[in-house]
Amino acid sequence: MNRIFFRFFVLVMLSITVATFAIYFATSRLFGDPLDDIARRQAAAQIFLLEQYIDKAPADEWLVRLNKVREVSDVKLDLVPLTSVRASLPAHQHAALNRGELVLDTANKAFYRRVDLHGESYIGSAEEVIHAQELPIDIGLALEMEAVRYVIVALFLLVPIALWSRSHWLGLQELSRVADEVGAGRLSARARFKTWAIIYPLAERLNHMTGRIEGLLDAQKNLLHSVSHELRTPIARLEFALELLRSAAENPALEQRIVAMEGDVAELNGLVNELLGMIRLDSRQALQEASFELAPALLGCVDSLDPLAARPQVRLDSALGSMTGDRRLLLRAVGNLLRNAQKYGNGHIALSARRAEGVEIVVEDDGPGIPEAERGKVFEPFYRLDRSRDRSTGGFGLGLSIAQKAVALHGGTIAVEQSAMGGARFVIALPA
């Protein structure tokens, strides 16, 4: 955010600078060089003496008055040939000199002007030029004055812009805070502004959008929660009815059908439990934080796996230490990844954990892996890869989603990569 306003101030300063140069060049083009005008004002006394005292002398007194001015003035006044002056001046100043106008040489603190055009001052005066040198011209001072003007204008522009920008900056900081909270799942966050604030309309739209999202998610959670609870009642009745049917049936073929139906009911019951678990994970209220030792917890998670499936190779850092969080949720996330590896691996899976800047837990297998194009989708609820559409191997598609939610509630992330073993590599990164 600070970078945005820094760039804005730099842009304003550049604009003022460009405008200053544009004014200078436009003025020079239309009205002549402003520096020449400044130099002419600084040499006004010498020009006045020439035009009002020397020039108005009779022909027989012209040179006398010129010599008097030489005696009392610090400026050096010389008479030089017209031809030599034409050779020393730039071509664009020749016309002004030929018309008898005063031509300034600002860089050398001098000016030129013909004595007269018709030789009326004295014999040969039409071919001579007055060359005044060592004039009291100080363009550096003029430039310093212009710089001071520029700084004053810039300050008077930047102060109100800074005050105006500060209100925007504070408003955007508040909106950024609200956006971060909403992104972290706290949908009750709202931006509070006075009605006269410039950013108020944007804040109201953000609050309205957040409120709608919160309402939609609450409605979705309530619906899912209600449906899940409502499903439990007919599931319980089906389980009870199957038990009664088994006790009354003596046909072996019917017994097989009953076993298959019980499997379907158990699967449906498992799905409902997973859905209820997902709903509870949608809020930080699901967390029951406490400090626990990480290494024993991970070893206990390994012990809870199916003993008939492949056992993971365990490599735990000796300095894992303890961490604060919901032990049950974190172990459920790791357990889901391990069971996923058991399901799709070819007999070799591994669990490792280390502590660096944070805690990193890795689960990998030697299975077929996950295509790169689908790695971002496997954490979506009910998403299953094409090779696992059969629910007997693919499950409900909720295990990875639950793992991601559990890790996110602890401020961590979970990512999937290609394993050196050939299959999938899931990396859980948790803050220290």
Automatic annotation (TrEMBL):
Q: Which CDD domains match?
A: HisKA
Q: Which domain of life is it from?
A: Bacteria
Q: Which GO terms describe its molecular function?
A: kinase activity
Record's keyword annotation contains Lyase:
no
User: What's the chief localization of this chain?
Assistant: membrane
Q: What keywords are assigned to this protein?
A: ATP-binding, Cell membrane, Kinase, Membrane, Nucleotide-binding, Phosphoprotein, Transferase, Transmembrane, Transmembrane helix
Q: What class of enzyme is it?
A: transferase
Provide the protein's localization.
Answer: Cell membrane
Per the record, membrane topology reads: Multi-pass membrane protein
For this protein, the parts annotated as crossing the membrane are 5-26
Q: Where is the HAMP domain?
A: 166-218
Q: Histidine kinase domain: from which residue to which, for each copy?
A: 226-432
**Annotated protein name in UniProt:** histidine kinase
